[in-house]
Write a structure and sequence with these properties.
The protein has about 270 residues and is an alpha/beta fold. The protein is built from 13 helices and 7 strands.
Length: about 270
């Protein structure tokens, strides 16, 4: 493999890292931990008639998953991604880890952000006990290239999907568990550690003076809706939409109400 920097990959291989549909105001979707750009297929389909909708794979889903990196590095990747697709700015839509990154992208590159869509994410760090639990789970896999143990993949379903989805749509859950079980363990180790020790950016949210839509599943087992509410209070121009019968991947579990909320937000503000 060529000795490329991570950002160079986003500049030179955007065709391999993105799904890019439609024309108009660009909306760039960044996925969460263990997910990939395909999780936004319902949103791309819903927006392609009037918007340029782009979903991309973050570093952990590429061959640049190692060595260690953090959310600010992922923000630099998003900056390079915009260069790669030829856009000066975009609405950045981030789910969970993608939202952690999106907030930092807006702070680091404010001139490139037209608006934010924050899906099942928050500005505060995870509680210390959760950080310790997650860290201990992936610590043994720092140098392991073999696929992630299936029991970890199966256990992750309870964190990423709500109860309604786990009970009523086991095919969706099972398909993602099968996919997670193919990931290099080392990639997952670095993916979690990219955000595990992140700082609280709540006190900087007032700097993000663009329209913001917060979308959150009512059944989110990983980030409870009330953990997202401080963003609603601190961001200068934000609104929030709660999604019934949806968990941490609300845009995938209940795509229609999420699509309606995103489309109404974009149509009204852009």
């Amino acid at each position: 493999m060529e000795d490329e920097t991570a950002t160079e990959i986003y500049r030179t291989r955007t065709d391999a890292l993105t799904t890019d549909v439609g024309e108009g105001q660009p909306v760039v979707f960044a996925h969460g931990t263990l997910m990939d750009r395909t999780m936004f297929a319902p949103q791309l389909e819903a927006l392609r008639d009037e918007y340029r909708a782009v979903a991309y794979d973050l570093r952990a889903r590429t061959d640049r998953y190692a060595p260690g990196y953090d959310l600010w590095d992922l923000a630099d990747d998003c900056d390079a991604l915009l260069d790669g697709i030829g856009e000066e700015s975009a609405v950045i839509a981030g789910m969970s880890m993608g939202g952690f990154m999106g907030l930092r992208f807006a702070l680091e590159y404010p001139e490139r952000v037209d608006g934010l869509v924050l899906i099942d994410t928050m500005a505060t760090p995870h509680p210390e006990a959760e950080r310790a639990e997650y860290g201990a789970l992936v610590e043994p896999y720092e140098d392991v290239l073999e696929p992630m143990p299936r029991e970890i993949a199966e256990g992750s379903a309870a964190e990423l999907f709500g109860e309604t989805t786990r009970e009523g749509n086991p095919e969706l859950v099972g398909a993602w568990v099968d996919r997670w079980a193919t990931y290099p363990s080392r990639a997952v180790h670095y993916e979690l550690n990219s955000w595990l020790g992140r700082e609280d950016v709540t006190d900087r949210l007032s700097e993000i003076d663009v329209p913001v839509l917060i979308v959150h599943g009512e059944e989110d087992p990983s980030i409870a809706p009330e953990q997202a509410e401080p963003m609603l209070e601190e961001l200068p121009d934000a609104e929030m939409e709660l999604i019934p019968e949806a968990g941490h991947t609300s845009n995938l579990e209940q795509p229609e109400p999420v699509n309606d909320a995103i489309r109404a937000f974009l149509d009204d503000r852009f």
